[in-house]
Amino acid sequence: MNNKKNQSGIILISFFLFTIFLITPSCLLATEKKSVTLLPFVLHADKSKHGFLTPALKSVFISHLAGEGLDIMDEKKFAPLLSEKDREGINDAKRAEEIARHVNAEYAIFGTVTSLGGWYNLDLAIIDLTSDEPKTTRASQSVEENKLIPTLRDVAHQFRAIIDGLDYDQQRLSSDNKQELSSQSKLPEDRTSMGLFFKPTSEGHEPVPVSETSFRMKIMSFDTGDLDGDGKTELIFLTRQKILIYHRNDKVLTLIDSYKGSGSESFFAISVGDGDKNGRDEMYVDASYGGRGRTTVFEWRGRGQFNVLFKETGHIRIVKDQGGAPPILLYQNSLPVSVHVYMGQGYDQFFKGRIYEVRYDKTGNQLEKHPVAGFGKGPGKGPQLHTLIRYDMDRDGRPEYIGLGKKYSKLTVWNPEGIVHWRGNKKMGGTNNALWEGENDLSAQARIPINAPPAIADVDDDGKPELLAIHNIAITEKLRNLLIYSSAQLYAYKIEGTNLSHQVFTTKEFEDSIAGVCSIDKTVYLAMLKGDWSTIGSKGSSRLMWFEQ
Description:
This protein has 549 residues and is of the alpha+beta class. The protein folds into 2 domains: 34-168, TolB, N-terminal domain (Rossmann fold); 211-548, TolB, C-terminal domain (Neuraminidase, 6 Propeller). Helices cover 16% and strands 40% of the residues. The strands form 9 sheets. Strands 1, 2, 3, 4, 5 and 6 form a 6-stranded mixed sheet that branches. Strands 28, 29, 30, 31 and 32 form a 5-stranded antiparallel sheet that branches. Strands 11-35-34-33 form a 4-stranded antiparallel sheet, with no helix packed on it. The termini are far apart.
């Protein structure tokens, strides 16, 4: 009898659950992706001078629309529907609607870009097909050439907001139904923040620096240190040919000294630290000399006194421990690189073989040399030398190495023996700095990128430091040897033992790429480098921003 009652109860419960399943909206059971077609844009410009625009437009929209819940439809799916005229660009809403409906897309993006002297006229649109009546929203404005990419990026953000159904203040964009959008979203009241950083699913505040200084130069590398042993921090910038030393007094930077290298070498990386333990930091300047790497070690003795301690063929990096332990020196050999090798092969020649922990005397005699045995084994095949820092993540007295993997530029944690502890799943870094850039950076020579290291800082002032990593954002796909990064975010990872958290906080996008990040006491410094076509072959444009925590 009891068995029959139990069976009846089970049947009743099963029927009840099945009924709930039937009446529950499908959106509560699974989240379906929305899809958007990115149709060919009409381009009114001299293609010999503005040929970059087509891939740039596509890349900007793909990179800034991409995200959870949205599928950017592969062009192969709708390419057969395009006529010869369509392939030259689409600016007709009816035609865009036809193609989008044919491939079952909810949205289509299309429009026109016109070049007029140093200006661009934009007439871009998104059509929403999720309701019975299609709704087209247009973004129409004229911008100067140097504002083109930021404006395209802003439009892409607005179009993504339309897809996500976000509310915006009425400001910038006009639409067919008189709707207007602004460039800043309303901030959710319950958003979780962490100092300058916010969850990547939210629109972050625009980070506001305490101050910033602009430079008419191309920053290759940036570091800080106490060069004269007075207990005060110097800010050291590296360009292709110069070392520049600055002092900061409140919100003002003052150039106190500079050094110009010979024309036969090209600087690309600097690291600063007290390798000989004499109480004042040296500068380890890595350069390309005769097609291979050569490091010069400088000691600064005051204005105009850059004493060369020694030079070493190969790469030396002084790796500071971000927790305050003594720094160590790492060395990697370098062989001449043929101008006709592929990028990966070029890197493996220029940064050749194993990485060693080394020690030198004042005249450059190598006193010790021990391989970091695990580097080069396992995922990523070792680190990019100039991205390495050290930090004792689990407080066991044995600092870990943190940096970017050589093969995929993924953020990685190695133990003191060089064995991988943790590896992220996102490509980080990205840089406008590389070796052997031609005047237009499209030469046949191998373009070996030089990424910057991460930093450690307590960004939310809870007494527990986070790891700050650079993520620069490219505006184009690869054009021969060329990648251009025009914006950036800084990622903050919580440190969990010898792992980094998967819960990542980010800043909102900065305009320009990040060439270096340093944290001193409660100040975070960002060296920014402009990346666009107007700076290729020029002296470049950079700036330094700093934030107080």
